[in-house]
Amino acid sequence: MKKSMLIFSAVILLLASCKRNESEQLSSEQISLSKNGALSLANTPAAAPNTFKVFDQILFYDGYAATVTGPVPAEVTRISNSKYVKKLSVADLSKLSNSLDIKVSVTPYCDNYDRIGSVGLSFIPKNSAFSENIGKHIEVGRFITPFMDKNKTPNIAPYLFSVNNVANLLRDANVLATYDIYVVFNLFGVPYAAQKEISGCAGHNETFYGTVEFINKSGGADPTTVVQMIQIATEKDLDNFTANNTDQIGSSKKTYTINLPSAITDARLYLITSAHGANPGGEEYIRRDHNIYFDNVLKLTYKPGGKSCEPYRQYNTQGNSIYGLTPKTASSWSSWSNWCPGDIIPIREISLGNLTAGNHTFKIDVPTAVFKDKQGYIRHSVYLQGR
Known about the structure:
mainly beta, 20 strands
């Protein structure tokens, strides 16, 4: 089959796969960001639908090496070999409507393993340099790269995320007068195996090319109510052996305190989690119940994975032990896989109802997690949004 047909088929497949992760659509709204992290929104006119690339084939490098000093595209800042940021321009922001998808495309260079990537949004005080220590930061999509040989096709892995619930944060006049909005693109990789295993990679420290595209959809009705959003945790790790990663050593739970400046209705959590640890008996390969509590009340229990990874076999052009040489049954995949190389990580939406002003708590607990040999982690991001 021709390369173009493979890529087209893959995009259609990923569109169907990602559909279930769409968040509730929030229409045209207006925003302000308070010192305690609350974002509030009200009506603003809808923009004309449009599509544009934020990053276009940006090149990532060895995540463990010193940051390279080569040139980057205009308006792009290299934070590290595995992270780039770009401030959305007035022209970019004017193209946005109240319904938004983000498409990510990854092409291998000299990393042939499965790695973690993500796209985030940062709200930075106006005219300040980008810093992870100021402003507010949320993760809006996470994905896992396939095992890819750059010399084989297909050589593009596509991912699609719906971010309707935050689309209007990017287009409100009040917030834009106070804050610059950055798109954050993370893709950590290392080239060491590919340098030995992939033709043309000897001596290279480049890992992947990545593209991030904003895709507008038709807008919905504008609400008249105010919306708030609070960052809780962004790309934090949970384990049971590191003080900052657990409530108590030996316990695989982590609690966060949230302060709401005012009461909100229709509150929802947006949660991303993925388990990692490829050592024998590692968390990557054992599916465990995740319990989510809000104000010490159990709100959701889920077990990641449980799906067939066969649809992503076509992207895994580098031989690997996860896929093997022959297709597996759905039951075989579901018995152990937490996620698939080449797939997105689900965004889970958890309804909380109405919340009063004041302090609240969010807790993630994976009670049977082992973290064998003190390896592995459960990476999690969560923010709260309501009206």
